[in-house]
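Support request from a user on the community tier.

User writes: "When I paste my structure tokens into the form, the page sometimes reloads and wipes my input. The last time it worked, I copied everything first. Here is what I submitted, just in case something in the input itself triggers the reload:"
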């Protein structure tokens, strides 16, 4: 998981901050999808945070209010942003 301002992502053509900006229009839909699949809907009422992960050639950007213990839980569903091209795609949407 990286912070949007993390300078270590500067090696990519697309920074973590840019990936978050590209993903923002889709994050509310991702959050709703995550909430619909959750048994305990109580977490959907809590303030959500945006998370950016780097996996291979992609940033995986998601919005979530539940504090998962494993990083993989933030990967699906998520908005994928290619680190070199900035192309936006989706995981399990």
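"...and here is what came back when it finally went through:"
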């Amino acid at each position: 998981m990286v912070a949007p301002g993390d300078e270590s992502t500067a090696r990519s053509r697309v920074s973590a901050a840019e990936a978050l900006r590209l993903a923002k229009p889709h994050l509310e839909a991702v959050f709703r999808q995550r909430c619909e699949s959750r048994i305990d809907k109580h977490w959907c009422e809590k303030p959500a945070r945006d998370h950016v992960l780097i996996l291979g050639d992609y940033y995986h950007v998601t919005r979530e209010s539940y504090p998962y213990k494993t990083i993989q839980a933030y990967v699906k569903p998520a908005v994928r942003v290619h680190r070199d091209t900035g192309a936006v795609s989706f995981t399990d949407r």
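Agent notes: The reload is a front-end session timeout and is unrelated to the input. The chain has one domain: 7-90. The mean pLDDT is 90. Escalated to web team.
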